[in-house]
Design goal:
The chain is α/β, with parallel strands linked by helices and 225 residues long. 32% of the residues lie in helices and 29% in strands. It is built from 7 helices and 10 strands. Strand 6 and strand 7 form a beta hairpin. Helix 1 packs across helix 2. It is globular. The chain starts with a strand and ends with a helix.
Length: 225
């Protein structure tokens, strides 16, 4: 039905899994502040394939975390994914990084999930999801201020998750807000999402696909220095 290799390199966590119909057969990951992607990604790919007792030619698709996140990390992951898809003649699936992060936490109907990835200084990449993982506010790159996220904090129980949550916690040390600062993007959560997209034939154009860098935001902040 769908044997998919999932690659997650958008953050400090270099994560790879191979899954069949959304069920993980093998996974490798290393969360290192030194960014181990260049050294570990292809080693992890070989290891999960061996552990799952499958061959490269058995793969039916490759899924990659599309960002936002680390520019270099995303570039490494997408380059590897596109290279495999070209070589094997199989489709490419992209998975939104922040949605994948949000799927790590289960919440109640009246709560919201706000995954936040650290960008620089007081800047983060964020999106807002409801309990059904429907996006209720699009992905943005933004500077955290005292007015940030107030429409959600004032109305709902809010869960901030990811590396950017530490910055937000400094501004909003509120007991009614739940922080999951330890959460990082992982190929583990990609498996179910990529399987669903495979069933829907929701594929990317291998030749033209690019990660979601949020380049405009990065360029603007550089000019403002």
């Amino acid at each position: 039905m769908g044997l998919i290799l999932n690659l997650e390199t958008s953050s400090t966590n270099c994560s790879v899994c191979v899954a069949k119909d959304g069920e993980i057969l093998a996974i490798r990951e290393l969360n290192s502040a030194n960014y181990s992607h260049a050294e570990k990604l292809h080693i992890f790919i070989e290891e999960v394939m061996q552990e799952a007792s499958v061959q490269m030619q058995d793969l039916e698709a490759v899924a990659v975390s599309k960002g936002p996140g680390s520019y270099t990390g995303l570039r490494i992951g997408v380059s590897a994914a596109k290279g495999l898809c070209y070589a094997l003649g199989i489709p490419l699936i992209s998975v939104a990084t922040l949605k994948s992060m949000a799927s790590q936490i289960q919440i109640k109907e009246n709560e919201v999930l706000i995954p936040v990835l650290d960008a620089r200084r007081m800047e983060v990449y964020s999106a807002v999801f409801d309990a059904e993982l429907s996006e209720i506010r699009e992905t943005k790159a933004e500077i955290i201020e005292e007015s940030s996220f107030q429409e959600y904090i004032n109305a709902k129980q809010v869960h901030f998750l990811g590396s950017g949550a530490e910055k937000i916690k400094e501004l909003f040390p509120d007991d009614t807000i739940t922080y999951h600062c330890e959460i990082v993007p992982s190929a583990k959560e990609m498996a179910f999402i990529s399987s669903n997209k495979y069933q829907l034939n929701d594929f990317e154009d291998v030749a033209y696909f690019e990660p979601y860098y949020l380049k405009d935001f990065v360029l603007q902040t550089k000019k403002a220095k």
